[in-house]
């Protein structure tokens, strides 16, 4: 009957995973803080108006509700939009540098049957007011370091740039429908479909050959950069090559370039990205665990023109991987359980306080049956698997070892509780 109270796409986080989740969040927030990022939070509910004109998030994917005033609200489906709004409201000077970090849940009512999860736990950063390759390099570097921080070694970033193909298509004066179709074929690296579709378009042979080479712009950065230079037909495309070349150099300086692969053929679901976009992968994980990029036009929606770059990590995907690889931080804090008889209550709580004062966990229970029954019951409970058990009886303190009670000198024995 309990299954009647569950909702598909939402999951409970058990105590073991929750401990690991909090440790990971705290460590990553410390990492971001060391780079100057300030932790912030935005509301769980947002106005529907904030997203109604954002074609990057289909209306059917939003969880909607109406408040008592008749205003349509949504459960927050994206972190970047509300954070950009916050930056615009609190920092109206568009020249200001603003660096935010956050941890939040977002909600998507995905219509696709492949997308099961409806609640996604994210952590990430947003860097406003800096349009330089160094800013992009820092953001990508922190995405990589976020995974390396916990011993995940097989990490790679697919780095693309939405401008390279867009500037080519603009030069060719392609229709929106043609662009959309070609983008889809290029992302799937389906050269046969691209060739068949190009046969329907009135383009010169040399321009068709350039488009056919776009799916091959994947692999080692220096090789891809060389190929990109040969395909440039205007200054904007040449500018893109310069930009991502400088970003890659920044990552070389930070000794993180070995984690980067160039892929100029992929797009991103969040179509507010204007320049670089990237996805982060871990070995044996088919889906990306990190998504990010530059979104220079989004802040104008709130009246403040301001460039920005950022990323988000799907934390629960990372935890699933870390659990499989035995990389999760473990709860190794000492746990002590003190049982007492009625007349020893005050002494039992004094012993417990000594444990807590020394950084240990201490729980206190009144004996209601036999000592053996309590030990047997506790040892069956996974939560108390490694707990150390004590008995306080008639002023004497005992410790349990292999189902035997061993007396300690007294309730004041400092060596045991320190």
UniProtKB/TrEMBL annotation:
Q: Which CDD domains does its entry note?
A: HisRS-like_core
One Pfam family matching this protein: tRNA-synt_His
This protein's pathway reads:
Amino-acid biosynthesis; L-histidine biosynthesis; L-histidine from 5-phospho-alpha-D-ribose 1-diphosphate: step 1/9
**Chief site of localization:** cytoplasm
Biological processes annotated in GO: histidyl-tRNA aminoacylation; L-histidine biosynthetic process
Q: GO cellular-component terms in the record?
A: cytoplasm
> What InterPro entries does this protein map onto?
aa-tRNA-synth_II/BPL/LPL, HisRS-like_core, HisRS/HisZ, HisZ
Give its localization: Cytoplasm
Q: Which family does it belong to?
A: Belongs to the class-II aminoacyl-tRNA synthetase family. HisZ subfamily.
Oligomeric state and interaction partners are given as:
Heteromultimer composed of HisG and HisZ subunits.
For this entry, the protein name equals: ATP phosphoribosyltransferase regulatory subunit
What does the record give as the organism's lineage?
Bacteria, Bacillati, Bacillota, Clostridia, Eubacteriales
Q: Which gene encodes it?
A: hisZ
